[in-house]
């Protein structure tokens, strides 16, 4: 497959926006790449859905909530930081895709298929998880894309531009251009706009002169300055007793007020510490309560499981004692016949509906008469797959097969059971490991009539076909 042969369409519905392409063969899809993209939102690729559409494979890319970068930039003036972020996010997506076992050459580098989020400027690219034939140089492709983006769409504010467009174009002309070096250039350009501006001398002098004014206005500094001046000017002969007493009283009152303030501060700190301790204790108690509740819940679940198992065992014993027989696949294999003969008396005695009890379940279900189904035995349980459609498909693809098998040997669309004129036919859908009826492999794309009691194998998964 070649990138140039790929045709894309836009498909919108009330809740989703998709980009759609069609394939002729599902085998060209690389499954693990699809799983990597869908399970890792940080891979930078749009999520992928694979569906069957008539005779083609429909590949859908989820672009909900995003717009093409071409439409986002058209007629818009952006800042320098936005421009750098967009280019860097595209480069990071291409450089880090190998962390998710993806190939950077499989990204579709087109301005109409590169999507951006208006919230955080995150970028998502369209990835082709197919078996591609390409010798593309991603460095050259990315450089050409950035040039086209700058020349045709980008318009940056003059106040914040700082010649970023000219510098970027100059870097793109380098002969040794590569993604890693360009990413480093963008990161350095992000910080290059931060400059240190020296303040004028007049502002510095004003700040220095304002410092002593602020200190003198503080009451504590006034007391410190005035006290030594009073002691130097007063002579011993001029000392007044009443004045000394009043000064002593004032100093004592100041000391007491300071002590009260210190005590209030210490008491406030103690209260905060006590509050923190109480809060921590409450949090610890809540955590312990949650753990106890979790343990009780686990005990309740264990008890409930034990009760269910006990009831299950009791029901099985009760059924065995009553002498009811459970029809199993092993019984039909031992019969080794393509149909089951039934006596007229048995037919007359059987009602139109009957009760089926599996080996590992106490639940019962009523089935209509003459119902076709496949039976297999897994882990002691009889599994019955009811054929409720005229065209019943067996395979591993969810949404395309009516019965989905967990056996990797079974094909994605392995076989089909078709009902025509009250008869059932089996068709092998060109599976790799084949389909067998009573030990014989059937040809692909041919109708093969199956009867009650036939043993059918899809690859190595064995089933018994029955009509009751």
Automatic annotation (TrEMBL):
The keyword Electron transport does not apply. It holds the Pfam family FHA. CDD domains: FHA. The chain crosses the membrane at residues 274-296, 302-321. Keywords: Membrane, Transmembrane, Transmembrane helix. InterPro entries: Cell_Proc_Reg/RNA_Proc, DUF6382, FHA_dom, SMAD_FHA_dom_sf. The keyword Lipid biosynthesis does not apply. It comes from the Bacteria. Residues 392-442 form the FHA domain. This is Predicted membrane protein, containing FHA domain. The lineage of its organism: Bacteria, Bacillati, Bacillota, Clostridia, Eubacteriales.
């Amino acid at each position: 497959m070649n990138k140039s042969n790929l045709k894309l369409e836009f498909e919108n519905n009330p809740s989703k926006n998709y980009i759609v392409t069609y394939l002729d063969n599902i085998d060209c899809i690389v499954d693990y790449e699809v799983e990597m993209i869908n399970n890792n939102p940080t891979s930078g690729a749009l999520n992928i859905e694979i569906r069957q559409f008539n005779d083609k494979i429909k590949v859908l890319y989820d672009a909900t909530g995003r717009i093409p970068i071409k439409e986002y930039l058209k007629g818009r003036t952006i800042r320098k930081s936005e421009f750098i972020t967009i280019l860097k996010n595209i480069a990071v997506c291409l450089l880090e895709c190998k962390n998710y076992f993806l190939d950077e050459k499989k990204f579709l580098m087109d301005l109409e298929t590169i999507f951006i989020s208006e919230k955080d400027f995150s970028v998502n690219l369209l990835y082709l998880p197919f078996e591609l034939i390409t010798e593309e140089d991603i460095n050259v492709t990315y450089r050409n894309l950035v040039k086209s983006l700058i020349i045709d769409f980008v318009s940056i504010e003059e106040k914040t531009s700082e010649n970023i467009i000219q510098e970027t174009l100059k870097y793109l002309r380098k002969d040794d251009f590569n993604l890693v070096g360009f990413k480093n250039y963008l990161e350095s350009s992000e910080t290059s706009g931060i400059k240190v501006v020296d303040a004028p001398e007049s502002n510095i002098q004003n700040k220095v002169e304002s410092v002593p004014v602020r200190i003198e206005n503080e009451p504590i500094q006034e007391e410190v300055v005035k006290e030594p001046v009073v002691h130097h000017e007063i002579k011993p002969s001029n000392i007044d007793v009443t004045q000394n007493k009043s000064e002593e009283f004032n100093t004592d009152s100041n000391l007491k007020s300071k002590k009260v303030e210190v005590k209030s501060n210490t008491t406030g700190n103690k209260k905060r510490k006590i509050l923190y301790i109480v809060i921590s204790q409450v949090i610890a108690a809540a955590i312990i309560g949650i753990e106890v509740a979790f343990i009780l819940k686990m005990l309740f679940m264990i008890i409930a499981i034990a009760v269910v198992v006990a009831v299950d065992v009791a029901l099985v014993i009760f059924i065995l004692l009553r002498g009811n027989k459970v029809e199993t696949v092993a019984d039909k294999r031992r019969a080794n016949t393509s149909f089951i003969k039934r006596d007229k008396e048995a037919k007359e005695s059987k009602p139109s509906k009957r009760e089926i009890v599996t080996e590992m379940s106490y639940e019962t279900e009523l089935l209509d008469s003459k119902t076709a189904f496949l039976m297999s035995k897994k882990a002691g349980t009889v599994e019955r797959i009811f054929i409720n459609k005229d065209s019943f498909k067996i395979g591993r693809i969810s949404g395309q097969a009516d019965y989905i098998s967990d056996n990797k040997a079974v094909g994605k669309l392995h076989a089909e059971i078709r009902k025509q004129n009250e008869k059932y036919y089996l068709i092998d859908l060109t599976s790799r490991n084949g389909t067998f009826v009573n030990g014989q492999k059937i040809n692909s794309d041919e109708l093969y009539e199956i009867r009650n009691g036939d043993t059918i194998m899809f690859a190595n998964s064995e089933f018994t076909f029955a009509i009751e």
